[in-house]
Design brief:
Elements (H helix, E strand, L loop, with lengths): L1 H12 L5 E3 L12 H8 L9 E5 L2 E2 L6 E6 L2 E6 L1 H9 L3 E4 L7 H14 L3 E8 L14 E8 L2 E5 L7 E5 L4 E4 L5 E5 L4 E8 L4 H13 L15 H38 L7 H6 L9 E4 L6 E4 L3 E6 L2 E6 L6 H5 L4 E2 L9 H14 L2 E5 L2
Antiparallel strand pairs: 1-11, 2-3, 2-6, 4-5, 6-7, 7-13, 8-11, 8-13, 9-10, 9-12, 14-18, 14-19, 15-16, 16-17
Length: 371
């Protein structure tokens, strides 16, 4: 599957053209169900900011489907489920924004996709009544993966100036839309639920932005642009120097350096919502040489050799260990579970346990089986 993903999808479709993958059995989603959404709506203090309600591109005022509450910290709005459902029954689409923050199954999918793409991924859920439409024809400013979860939806895709393409997504189907692909969608005769995964790809203008940040700290870019109406020749001279400075800055930073700055944003975003994080901390005192642990799935992990110490960097944080413990990292680099006492190196079992305990505390490792 990974070979197909890289050789077919990334080479042929990524950033170029849409792709519809049909699942012929039409089975309902196993990783996102109506019960997941039901449980979310049962939360009495569900913040109104997590939802959006639209009909044919028009926003339904938040006051129409939420209520105001107050606490010692001030006033805030929460979803009024009955009024929200009334909007739905009148034809409005309900949107759950950043749903991966509230639904663990979506969080896992986002992490898996983020690992494959090496890019930040988030998810919204769209709940549309029969023959309803949330938005009119529009386009998104990011890459989009659409998973049909329930019912069916009719899509019209306006790609590359060609004739519009009409297709229907049924349960299990996947649709990929490159950035800026105009599209519109309409639910079929039954309600439709689909999850959209937004992927923040790195575009050329993003690298220009990173270059601008670097330029702000560079003395070569601190001179004011000559006033055009005063001296045309001075402006030409400045333009030539400016072009040379940009070229020099780009060479100095390099494409790899600019991409590394963007990668650090992804690493920092990984720090939230780790599955099992709370229970790991609670059981920290029970960790023993027989405890089975492993590196968190999908965790971006780098080791920097600083001479006498090794710096383990992940999720925008770092842990330093003595360089002589390098052999202990061999098992940690993989995502295969291992008992703490199986770690290689000269450490005693107690020493290995203390090392692993520090990495569990930091979030790099997770407990798979108590000792």
């Amino acid at each position: 599957r990974r070979v197909l993903f890289r050789s077919v999808f990334l080479d042929r479709y990524w950033g170029k053209e849409f792709l519809h993958v049909s699942r012929s059995d039409g089975q309902h989603s196993e990783w996102l169900t109506l019960r997941d959404i039901d449980l979310l709506f049962q939360f009495e203090n569900l913040p109104a900011a997590t939802c959006n309600v639209v009909s044919m591109g028009a926003q339904i005022p938040v006051e129409d489907w939420s209520r105001e509450r107050s606490s010692d910290r001030g006033h805030y709005r929460t979803v009024d489920l009955e009024r929200l459902l009334e909007c739905y029954l009148k034809g409005a689409t309900l949107i759950l924004n950043q749903a991966q923050r509230a639904i663990p199954a979506l969080s896992r999918i986002c992490r898996l996709l983020s690992r494959e793409f090496g890019l930040p991924v988030w998810s919204n859920i769209y709940i549309t009544p029969p023959e309803g439409a949330g938005f009119a024809k529009h386009e998104d400013d990011h890459e989009v993966l659409i998973f049909q979860v329930f019912g069916a939806k009719l899509w019209t895709i306006f790609a590359n100036g060609k004739e519009p393409v009409n297709l229907q997504l049924t349960c299990g189907d996947i649709l990929y839309l490159p950035r800026s692909t105009p599209h519109a969608a309409l639910a079929a005769r039954l309600p439709s639920i689909h999850a959209t995964f937004g992927i923040s790809a790195i575009y050329g203008f993003d690298l220009v932005s990173e270059l601008a940040v670097a330029a702000k700290q560079d003395p070569s870019f601190q001179t004011a642009v000559p006033i055009r109406s005063l001296d045309t020749e001075a402006l030409k001279t400045w333009e030539k120097e400016f072009a040379e400075n940009v070229r020099s800055l780009l060479l100095a930073r390099g494409l790899a350096g600019l991409l590394e700055q963007k990668a650090q944003v992804l690493e920092k975003s990984e720090a939230g919502g780790w599955p099992g994080r709370f229970s790991d901390v609670v059981h920290l005192g029970d960790v023993s040489p027989t405890t089975v642990v492993c590196r968190r799935s999908g965790m971006l992990f780098k080791v920097h050799d600083l001479g006498e110490t090794l710096e383990l960097r992940f999720a925008g944080r770092s842990v330093s260990i003595p360089a002589f413990l390098a052999s202990c990292l061999e098992m940690i680099r993989t995502e295969e579970p291992f008992a703490i006492k199986e770690l290689r190196g000269l450490l005693s079992d107690d020493g290995k346990t203390e090392l692993v305990r520090s990495l569990i505390r930091a979030g790099l490792l997770e407990i798979k089986q108590p000792g």
